[in-house]
Write a structure and sequence with these properties.
The chain has 150 residues and is α+β, with helices and mostly antiparallel strands. 43% of the residues lie in helices and 13% in strands. The chain is built from 5 helices and 4 strands; from the N terminus they run H-E-H-E-E-E-H-H-H. Strand 2 (46-48) and strand 3 (54-59) form a beta hairpin. The chain binds zinc ion (ZN).
């Protein structure tokens, strides 16, 4: 898994201009019930694709014991050969960049908007690996602009 995470971090750096040489988030493969239990008090985002695959990113904010500490939770059905799963992992890794770089947004929606824009770019860059070529249509401007509202 480390090699996949690192290659995605390099891709994010190349795509966004952010320095990718930051702390590497921990990735945990968990069952659905474990994933459901991830949330407050540290809770952050929750990302669900229409195809049912789900992942989450959690960080510990303002805790000097864990500088730059972030954990990504992937459902145990994670399939590294499915680019839609990799794209969701990319989405969560981008949240880690947002956290490490303390990028501020007016609201949580804008944070998600930017993560989805980058996720769409990842899917476009890897569209030859998409099993369902129509999958990218989910990330149309209408969908993304709905996220943008605060
Ligand atoms: Zn998200």
């Amino acid at each position: 898994m480390d090699a996949i995470v690192l290659s995605i971090m390099i891709w994010i750096g190349f795509t966004t201009g952010l320095d990718p040489y930051i702390s590497v988030p921990e990735v945990r493969i968990v069952s659905q019930s474990e994933l459901n239990s991830v949330g407050p008090p540290y809770g952050d985002g929750r990302d669900i694709l229409k195809n049912g695959y789900e992942a989450k990113y959690r960080y510990i904010q303002n805790d000097i014991r864990f500088p730059g500490y972030g954990t990504i939770y992937l459902l145990d059905s994670f399939d590294k050969t499915d680019v839609t799963h990799l794209a969701l992992l990319e989405h969560e890794i981008f949240h880690h960049f947002q956290f490490v770089y303390s990028i501020s947004y007016d609201c949580q929606n804008q944070r998600e908007y930017e993560a989805n824009i980058i996720q769409r770019q990842y899917l476009k860059d890897n569209k030859n690996m998409l099993k369902d070529k129509k999958f990218l249509q989910k990330f149309d401007d209408k969908f993304l602009n709905r996220l943008k509202r605060c």
